[in-house]
Amino acid sequence: MVSIVKIYIDAGHGGQDSGAVGNGLQEKNIVAEIARQMNQILATEYENVQTAMTRMDDTFVSLSERANRANAWGADAFISIHCNSGGGKGFESYRYSGVTDSRTIAFQNTVHDHVMGFYSQHGIVDRGKKSANYAVLRETNMIAVLTENLFMDNVEITKFNDLNFLIGAARAHAEGVAAFFGLKKKPQIVYIYTGGFAGNALAEVHDYLFRTGDGFDCKRGEDGSIIFLIGPFDTSQQNFKDCKNFLDSKGHYNKLLSPEEAADWR
Ligand SMILES: [Zn+2]
């Protein structure tokens, strides 16, 4: 039997509790969006994982209630997402000051290092792996970590106005959790959409597809050339890599389409 890993994602603050504010932004909104994105990434891209969240929207939940819910749900790990304030800058993470067990420390290390791996590419400084007597860390029964993502009272917080930056931070949190538990990625299904082919290039691509047996569909472009939609491929499989390599190495334009985009193409 495959065991399912249960991850509890806790977006700090909410409702009447805005958390810290600064630069025209409220902590509760930033952390809610990071949590939502992190949840989405874990739930859609990884196998054998179940997620729960303290809040999906702007509601107030007390600190003890957050811990109680994670405990009652039987979470394997708890991750609380916050932004800092008080005249500093950068990223830091916390575990409960009362724990010394190696799993909690390893969990903090893995999440911290993945998140910092993202932030360091954006000039965000590492304030270190810390411990504190925070209620959500103290009252949760499972391994738990709290991240403090940049300072509301420093202009660096406005980086979160860029959705790509925010999603990058959320993805780094998700990847840290996934790495700690050894979660496998779900196979990703794509199609390869090509440019238009004519003459020798058309014969070459046609040959390749008949040789490999990769499924394809084609249509005539406005200039009379033939455009291919090749797939579906599982990106983890060799035939995908071979086909992509073939097109790239010949200098043939191509791009990847999701199954939904491929359906529109037809
Ligand atoms: Zn906070």
Structure write-up:
This is N-acetylmuramoyl-L-alanine amidase. It comes from Ectobacillus funiculus. Residues 67-178 form the MurNAc-LAA domain. The chain has 266 residues and is α/β, with parallel strands linked by helices. The chain folds into two domains: 5-181, Zn-dependent exopeptidases (Aminopeptidase, 3-Layer(aba) Sandwich), CATH 3.40.630.40; 189-265, Alpha-Beta Plaits, CATH 3.30.70.2030. Helix content is 39%, strand content 27%. It has eight helices and twelve strands. The chain has helices at residues 27-45, 63-73, 102-119, 135-139, 163-181, 199-212, 238-249, 259-265; strands at residues 5-11, 21-22, 25-26, 49-53, 77-84, 91-96, 126-132, 143-151, 189-197, 216-220, 226-234, 254-257. The strands form three sheets. It has a six-stranded mixed sheet, sandwiched between helices. It has a four-stranded antiparallel sheet with strand order 10-11-9-12. The protein has a two-stranded antiparallel ribbon with strand order 2-3. α1 (27-45) crosses α5 (163-181) and α3 (102-119) runs antiparallel to α5 (163-181). Bound molecules: zinc ion.
